[in-house]
């Protein structure tokens, strides 16, 4: 897994939202600087105003339950809740470190859900980056969290949520969704295998090519336009 994906998963596990482009770039570089050793920076990642404002008043059981809900859309089993709560109570591990342990221990359907949430989060981060969408408002952050919370283990739901990302950026931010030099209808059939950070966008007649990092070729059929995710 590349550093950007690792950081995106950190945002999902700990904050329950897709990363902002600046934060993703910063922490991916920090991870590169420590040769990919996530334990070397996880506590710094978790020490933030956002954490204090959102989770500072919760008890340790509620914090552990929140990690499981953000990752897997479910409560922890009794044994896991007791184990991680005790670690937190005793100060043996930080919440951010526990979040990574829970993430890395995922199997079966939980692992599929994580992969699907990563796909949606990467698409979201890429879309706000290419359209220069401010990602600080409480409304947009909460809407992004809500979309991630709906992602399950099915491909159909991933497709549905990615469509809703387009709608979200059009309705909440109230700006046109820009793909190069043309605007496209946000209500279209979207078939996506994976998505990563959008790095470039250009148009030629009625075709727009969006360059993505480490992504298989994907085609989106739109009314009057064809967007190739390359």
TrEMBL record:
Coiled-coil regions listed in the entry? 137-164
| Top-rank taxon, per record | Bacteria
Q: Which UniProt keywords are given for this protein, alphabetically ordered? A: Coiled coil
* UniProt cross-references to InterPro entries, sorted A to Z: DUF4214, PBS_linker_sf
Start and end residues of each DUF4214 domain: 44-100
**rRNA processing listed as a keyword:** no
Q: What name does UniProt use for this protein? A: DUF4214 domain-containing protein
